[in-house]
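Postdoc handover notes: sequence design on the structure in folder B. Input tokens:
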């Protein structure tokens, strides 16, 4: 078959770099947008941050200083120090990380220098949860490559057993079972409940995880009360030993910066976009003047200035596109949020979830005159601050369900019923998905068992077998 060349004319729909930039800006929440703008200011020399004017700043004149009373200088100072006392600077120190804390404990162990290096390498391989999730062969290869020390898996196991004795208890475990056993063995096993708990974790861990409690009681020959006390002892253990160590430096609670603010007073809503920490950018006029100076009156540019003019013009064009994209992002977000507010007006009055109307992305897209993908990007990872709390915009969207009477209700209503049924169930005999389906059908909600399972998983509720208690 001969090789030949030919031209084919096609129509293709592709996104320009500016459109891609706009899409990426649209997805960013308020905190990441602030970082993105500062990054663009660093990369583009013609962009600069516009200073915000303090409108409420007090205007103090020179006369205000002249009218003040002449207070002697010695009354403005304190002298609480003796001649022999030296002023000391206050030193602020940070807490230790978990790895540094574990390494410090190694100093109390009788280890050779080479063994200490290997043990510190093992500690560095422990993740934030406190687990060592790498196999010994891979760690041995890394130690040989980075430290130049030849080790065997047996030597690593011996050093790991020393790390298992450090605090917090359970550190360096390679599985959940080993983690719980390490914690249990570091405690005093001096009661029947603790001895039974240790036996369950050692010999019957799989049945315990799957909550086959009746089978376990028969195998162990224990009473229900003794078995319940043993389970309570196991519940006191931590599945993530890394969480047992805290030096007070970090706040694990999430910090949310809302993208929208919705105020409600006198029956009226006031919607605004949060731009408190978002820098306002503008084009530096000095670069515009630079180009004007390089261009002659007849429009001619000298050869030595052509490259500089071309560079500055490309940066100015890029800055204009970036400023335009930020403005377009602002308009798109406000238009979308306004339509969401209009659609869910009754809910935003008091925050009652039972008043949420069924709403999908297409409903807002049709109202706002935008594409469904655009609405999806707007509501993704965005929050709104209301008078009843901060809400995730994505949580406002729900499917529509039809009752036997023909009424359209939100899936939130069904989830609330599911949550109530599971909260009030007998934990010794938890409700199965089929039983929950029958309860909902009796209330007039036509719903299948697989839909019940889907909503249960969305509520982070395990299956009936894993909810069972003794």
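Designed sequence:
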């Amino acid at each position: 078959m001969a090789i030949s060349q030919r031209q084919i004319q096609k129509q293709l729909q592709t996104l320009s770099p500016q459109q891609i930039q706009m899409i990426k800006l649209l997805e960013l929440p308020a905190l990441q947008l602030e970082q993105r703008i500062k990054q663009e200011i660093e990369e583009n020399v013609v962009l600069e941050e516009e200073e915000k004017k303090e409108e409420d700043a007090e205007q103090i004149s020179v006369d205000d200083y002249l009218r003040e009373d002449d207070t002697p200088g010695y009354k403005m100072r304190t002298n609480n120090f003796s001649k022999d006392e030296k002023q000391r600077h206050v030193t602020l120190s940070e807490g230790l990380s978990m790895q540094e804390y574990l390494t410090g404990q190694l100093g109390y162990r009788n280890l050779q220098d080479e063994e200490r290096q290997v043990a510190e390498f093992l500690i560095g391989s422990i993740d934030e949860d406190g687990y060592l999730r790498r196999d010994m062969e891979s760690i041995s290869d890394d130690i040989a490559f980075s430290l130049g020390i030849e080790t065997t898996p047996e030597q690593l196991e011996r050093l790991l057993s020393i790390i298992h004795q450090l605090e917090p208890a359970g550190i360096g475990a390679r599985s959940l079972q080993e983690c719980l056993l390490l914690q249990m063995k570091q405690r005093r096993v001096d009661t029947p409940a603790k001895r039974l708990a240790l036996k369950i974790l050692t010999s019957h861990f799989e049945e315990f995880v799957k909550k086959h409690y009746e089978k376990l009681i028969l195998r162990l020959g224990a009473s229900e009360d003794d078995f319940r006390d043993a389970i309570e002892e196991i519940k006191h253990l931590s599945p993530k030993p890394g969480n047992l160590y805290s030096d007070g430096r970090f706040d694990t609670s999430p910090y949310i910066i809302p993208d929208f603010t919705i105020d409600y007073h006198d029956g009226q809503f006031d919607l605004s976009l949060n731009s408190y920490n978002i820098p306002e950018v503008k084009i530096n006029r000095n670069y515009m003047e630079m180009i004007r100076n390089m261009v002659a009156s007849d429009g001619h540019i000298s050869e030595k200035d052509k490259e500089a003019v071309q560079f500055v013009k490309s940066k100015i064009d890029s800055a204009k596109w970036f400023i335009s994209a930020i403005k377009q992002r602002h308009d798109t977000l406000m238009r979308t949020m306004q339509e969401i507010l209009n659609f869910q007006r009754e809910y935003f009055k008091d925050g009652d979830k039972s008043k949420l109307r069924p709403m999908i992305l297409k409903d807002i897209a049709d109202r706002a005159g935008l594409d469904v993908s655009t609405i999806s990007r707007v509501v993704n990872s965005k929050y709104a601050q209301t008078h009843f709390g901060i809400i995730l915009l994505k949580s406002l969207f729900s499917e529509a369900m039809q009752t036997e009477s023909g009424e359209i209700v939100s899936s939130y209503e069904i989830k609330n019923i599911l949550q109530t049924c599971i909260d009030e169930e007998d934990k010794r005999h938890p409700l199965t998905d089929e039983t929950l389906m029958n309860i909902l059908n009796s209330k007039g909600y036509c719903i299948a068992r697989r839909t019940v399972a889907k909503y249960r998983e969305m509520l982070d509720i395990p299956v009936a077998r894993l909810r069972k208690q003794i």
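Context for whoever picks this up: Strands lie at 47-50, 260-265, 268-273, 280-283, 383-386, 389-392, 400-402, 408-410. Don't rerun without checking with the PI first.
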